[in-house]
Amino acid sequence: MTLPALPWTRWDGLRALVDALGAEECRYVGGCVRDALLNVAAQDIDIATRHAPDAVMRTLNNAGIRTIPTGLDHGTVTALLPEASVEITTLRRDVATDGRHATIAFTDDWREDAARRDFTINALYAHPGTLAIDDYFGGLDDLKAGIVRFIGDARTRIAEDHLRILRYFRFEARFGNGAPDAEAVAACRDCAPTLMGLSRERIGQELRRLLALPRPAETVRRMADLGVLRVILPESGTDERDTLSRLIEAEDAAGIAPDAMRRLAALLPPRRDVAAQVAARLRLSNAQKKRLISAAEREAGDAANPRGLLFRLGRERAEDRLLLLGASVRPIAGWEPPAFAIDGRAVMAAGVEKGPAIAAILHRVQARWIDEGFPGPDRTHAILREEVG
After folding, report:
1. DSSP sequence for 8-28
2. Pseudo-torsion of CA 36, 41, 43, 49, nearest 10°?
3. d(CA 364, CA 346)
4. With contact defined as beta carbons under 8 Å apart, do 293 and 276 qualify?
5. Counting beta carbons within 10 angstroms of the beta carbon of residue 323, is it exposed (0 to 12), middle (13 to 18) or buried (19 or more)?
6. Partners of 94 in the beta sheet?
7. Residue 123: strand pairing partners
């Protein structure tokens, strides 16, 4: 089998890179090969090579291709091409692993490099000249059948990097046929406690990648049944998983793209303290934390005035609350809130002395303006006069 000649395989910059390294000394590898076989646009182009990292940098720099030593200890160099950045990694084998980090040694054996990868569908190599595919562990058949299978012994692969448990479920949600590999499932179930040894930030990143996929609900339920979800998100129960399923249906009906943070909110009880605790534990950014808390503060009354909700919270957070409540987002689709015509100077012009009373009156006027459906300036000033008395 050969790799489809997708546009990226014909990039001028990539051809120059391959010419410099030598087509026999490098291969396209991993996700770009897998996705090309599925006719999916590759997000990242990765190249494996028999050249040592210093030789890669020297060779490419001599060819006028700029490089960055992004991970020399692990054999990775990034080439900055006109079309995109490409990661080039020297063939490796594991010397020692502890479930989080690996000590590696370089090799010139393609199969040995493939053997240290996680899943068969990620261990596909393509010759950059002929596009012929090398498949050492049955990845082509697994990809065709929709089977996500660890290379070799599943428990051994997980022991090398515990995060592979979560990666398995993400790949199962994306590529699986709905009938998971029994050995992989059993290994993930038995090894689930090892996830506690990972940084919460890595867990949060992998969880969000899973939730960003189009249809993660069934996979999340499987993770719960196997005891995996309890380790990484103990706050999530049956009700929350039902909320996630309803949210995905609501997103589909509204034509709204999947959103990992909104779906994470669905998996939590609607409580501010829980959202804050999870945000801290998963090392979320301040913006992500505020959004998760806003979603947790949703109330049934939010659906009564969707446009008022958008005015107060902004579009993203308003959509979060409405979708999580099962309410329609149609009232705010394409709608932009008008400017509030009253400010402190207008309040003083109405006869109110400078001081704290101005802010209180502004708040009351704005609340009535929102409740009345954002009337024009004449009515807004009339509301102001009524409040001033």
Report:
1. GGG-HHHHHHHHHH-GGGEEE
2. 30
3. 14
4. yes
5. buried
6. 104
7. none
CB-CB neighbours of 148 under 10 Å = 25
Q: Which residue has the tokens 């990539």?
A: 14
User: Based on C-alpha coordinates, what's the Rg of the chain?
Assistant: 27
Sequence-distant (6+) residues with CB within 8 A of 186 are 154
* Alpha-carbon distance values, 339 to 138, 239, 302, 330 (Å): 61, 39, 21, 21
Per-residue pLDDT of the chain (389 residues; tens, 9 = 90+): 899 989 999 999 999 999 999 999 999 999 999 999 999 888 899 999 999 999 999 999 999 999 999 888 789 999 999 999 999 999 998 776 655 666 778 999 999 999 999 999 999 999 999 999 999 999 999 999 999 999 999 999 999 999 999 999 999 999 999 999 999 999 999 999 999 999 999 999 999 999 999 999 999 999 999 999 999 999 999 999 999 999 999 999 999 999 999 999 999 999 999 999 999 999 999 999 999 999 999 999 999 999 999 999 999 999 999 999 999 999 999 999 999 988 989 989 888 888 888 999 999 999 999 999 999 999 999 999 998 87
Element (H, E) at 208: helix 200-211
The span from the CA of 291 to the CA of 278, in Å, is 12
Question: By the 8 A CB rule, do 162 and 100 touch?
Answer: yes
Task: Identify residue 343 by its one-letter amino acid code.
Answer: D
- Cα 354 to Cα 245, 273, 346, 361, 387: the distances in Å are 52, 38, 11, 12, 16
Strands 45-49 and 66-71, sheet pairing: unpaired
User: 134, 101, 94: which is closest to 115 by C-alpha?
Assistant: 94
Closest CA to 149 of 101, 117, 107, 192: 117
Instruction: Dig out the tokens for 240 from the structure.
Output: 């929350």
